[in-house]
Fold this protein.
Amino acid sequence: LCFSSRCNICDKQYENMYGKDGWSEHMIKHHGNSVGTDDDYVLYHTRALMTLGLFRLYHNKLISVGDGKRLMSLYRLMYVWCHNLGLKNYALGLLELQFQLAVLPEQMRVSLIQNRFVNFAGKVDSNHPVDLVVEHENKFFKQNIKTYRGDFTQSALDKVTKASNVTKAMKKNLKQSTGLRQKDVGTHTSKDPRPDVLALVNQFRGDSLFEDIPSRSYKNLFVHPNVFKINRSELLYFVTKNVKTFKTMHYYRYVNTVNLG
């Protein structure tokens, strides 16, 4: 994992990657210090992690109830957050989604918002992302094809296709009878998560993760205090530059992009 960021002081570019804190190295090389004496970077990291965790919980809840409109609103917020964190590829993908919602015809916009989920149980809160279901289907198929030594012949494909529904039903009955969510992992569906949450909170409090202690920092983590602020000029530049790129793509040729910047 490697991505480029820009220093909020001198606007020079530096690279962050796994095992390398590019921001701290940049601060030492160009500004003479690794962390600010009044800043607690451990607290910044804790705040960012907790915020992303809340985003994730809300995201999963919206998917489970199939609320596409609120999910799109959350993605707008997540775009700004990913941009501030320096996750440019994620920010670019979220920005293109907002671009599609702005330029596509109404029927395609409705399809883009609502046709993101699949519901096998028919309950209000039992929706799942379509792309995740497709990935699971691919994995399930590959596991079954191994029975035939990975030989993708027409005969093997026909046998796996016919047997897949029967195998799924057998696995479902096994999970229901044993109370296991996933047989390989062994996680019980009736397990109460509260003891684990309380144990983590007590550990966090013992390590003073929620207290403001100046000059603290992790060795290889680079959450900067500016992640909680919006740089409007940089954000506008990123949006304008990439929207112009989107407008040149051939698959947006037939939509109206004249009124976009």
